[in-house]
Amino acid sequence: MGSTMVDSALFRNFCGTERAREIWCDEAMLKNWFKFWVALAQAEEEIGIVPKGTAAAIDAVSDVSTYDLDALREKIEETTHPCIPLCWEIEKRAKDGLGKWVHWGATLQD
Fold it and tell me: pTM of the prediction?
């Protein structure tokens, strides 16, 4: 049961398109987050903010299909933050402790 016009079987194409839903689906959004985090880490590696190998370590754990989206949703609801639970999961999965640098410098809290 949908709660918005975009979710509605009757109105979803009235308020959006199949292509828009493909772009904004959870899997596509997470893939783009990983692209951002890898690019950020590459830039930060170049200027010495994070250790060399950080971008590759993040990229190595970026297969969205290996993540439990239901568990991730639960953690997002628990923390009320959209990306911190995924950052925690990346930190656990990335080799050599390099996952701790994911999202580094992208917020004021770093």
Answer: 0.86
Phi first, then psi, for residue 59 (nearest 5°) are: -60, -35
CA distance 80 to 15: 27
- In the chain, the domains with their CATH numbers are 26-101 (1.10.275.10)
Q: Is 80 exposed, middle or buried (0-12, 13-18, 19+ CB in 10 A)?
A: exposed
Which tens digits make up the pLDDT trace of 13-58? 887 888 888 888 999 999 999 999 999 999 999 999 999 999 999 9
Please provide residue 87's backbone torsions phi and psi, each rounded to the nearest 5 degrees. -60, -40
Q: What number of other Cβ atoms are within 10 A of residue 65's Cβ? A: 8
Encoded amino acid at 63, one letter:
D
Q: How deeply is 12 buried, as exposed, middle or buried, from its count of CB atoms within 10 A (0-12, 13-18, 19+)?
A: middle
